[in-house]
């Protein structure tokens, strides 16, 4: 039976179609989820994609985190459903309390759009099992408010528990604490990252196909549940 992965669309979402394409390329069925509907349509996993939900008013992801669909995502995540937040989706997951910390303006106050090498720090999550530990992958980064921040205590806990999933291989261009590019929940089922794996699923259109590994990993995780 084909796995079904939901992709949420909020007002201002830009990358839902790209995320759905990545899901399909991985061999799953992409299911469109609407922000105003408290219904996950029986999906096996959820992707919260990138963009500018609600125009990034208030704080990036703050309004979207209170959408009806997110109430269902929060409940499903607490029950072990794999959830991936990409860029604005990462911001939304932090605002929703599914991941700790917050995002600030990039260090130099500029929008960054370029390919970045990431190191896989933890290949034991629901979204990274297809990667070798410490592998370096090439993924596009495009954000203006992607600087990951958290209290020193939270950073220490994330590092100690192996919950830093991706780290910029070089100096973080956005100034993220400890060069953090992505983190996970305590159980490894929820992952958020600022770079865009859905834009790196085919060498013809992206800098690599490295991003496909996240979506293939999710399929493995769904099968094991």
From TrEMBL:
Pathway assigned to this chain's UniProt record: Purine metabolism; IMP biosynthesis via de novo pathway; 5-amino-1-(5-phospho-D-ribosyl)imidazole from N(2)-formyl-N(1)-(5-phospho-D-ribosyl)glycinamide: step 1/2
Catalytic activity field: L-glutamine + H2O = L-glutamate + NH4(+); N(2)-formyl-N(1)-(5-phospho-beta-D-ribosyl)glycinamide + L-glutamine + ATP + H2O = 2-formamido-N(1)-(5-O-phospho-beta-D-ribosyl)acetamidine + L-glutamate + ADP + phosphate + H(+)
Entry keyword set: ATP-binding, Cytoplasm, Glutamine amidotransferase, Hydrolase, Ligase, Nucleotide-binding, Purine biosynthesis
Gene3D superfamilies: 3.40.50.880
Enzyme Commission code(s) on record: 6.3.5.3, 3.5.1.2
Pfam families assigned to the protein according to its UniProt record, in alphabetical order: GATase_5
Main location: cytoplasm
SUPFAM superfamilies xref list: Class I glutamine amidotransferase-like
Subcellular location as annotated: Cytoplasm
Domain of life: Bacteria
Transmembrane segments: none
Active site: 87 (nucleophile), 196, 198
UniProt cross-references to InterPro entries, sorted A to Z: Class_I_gatase-like, PRibForGlyAmidine_synth_PurQ
Subunit and partners: Part of the FGAM synthase complex composed of 1 PurL, 1 PurQ and 2 PurS subunits.
Protein task: Part of the phosphoribosylformylglycinamidine synthase complex involved in the purines biosynthetic pathway. Catalyzes the ATP-dependent conversion of formylglycinamide ribonucleotide (FGAR) and glutamine to yield formylglycinamidine ribonucleotide (FGAM) and glutamate. The FGAM synthase complex is composed of three subunits. PurQ produces an ammonia molecule by converting glutamine to glutamate. PurL transfers the ammonia molecule to FGAR to form FGAM in an ATP-dependent manner.
Matches recorded under PANTHER family: PHOSPHORIBOSYLFORMYLGLYCINAMIDINE SYNTHASE SUBUNIT PURQ (PTHR47552:SF1)
Protein name (database record): Phosphoribosylformylglycinamidine synthase subunit PurQ
